[in-house]
Amino acid sequence: MPDEIVIRAAEERELDAVAGLRWRWFEEDGKTAVVEREEFVRGFVGWAKENAGSHWCTVVVRGERVIGMAWVGGRLLGAVVERARELGVERLTVHSSGRAVPAYVRAGFAGSERLLQVRY
């Protein structure tokens, strides 16, 4: 069925598309890029490959096209949380846009006073 939506682990060949989605979110948030899109995609794909053992990406695919990734939609979030439980992970961390915070809170996510970061 061509319109069927499938949620599954991203394949290496799809990482460029995932990076493209992430870039688009960056633009939609009105942020100013410090690198060109192509450099961002190369860096994102390289990082994803290097960290595949500890970080995994879930995608939403319609036909052969990646139309979403791990931070999109309740169904996808549910699949990510369930997979984390299956793997027995200690902590599931997300990097959210401001618009998506309420969805994560509804799914049981909460902020942590001990998770600190520096923004540049």
Explain what the structure shows.
The structure is a single chain. The protein has 120 residues and is α+β, with helices and mostly antiparallel strands. It has one domain: Aminopeptidase. Helix content is 40%, strand content 12%. It contains 4 helices and 3 strands. A 3-stranded antiparallel sheet has the order 1-2-3. Strand 2 and strand 3 form a beta hairpin. Helix 1 crosses helix 2. The longest helix has 14 residues. The N and C termini lie far apart (45 Å). Keywords: Transferase. It comes from Streptomyces acidiscabies. One of its GO terms (molecular function) is acyltransferase activity, transferring groups other than amino-acyl groups.
CATH class: Alpha Beta
Helical stretch tally: 4
Task: Report strand %.
Answer: 5-15%
Strand order of the largest sheet: 1-2-3
* Computed structural class: alpha+beta
What is the distance, rounded to the nearest whole angstrom, between the alpha carbons of the first and last residues? 45 Å
Shape: globular
Compute the average pLDDT: 84
Radius of gyration: 15 Å
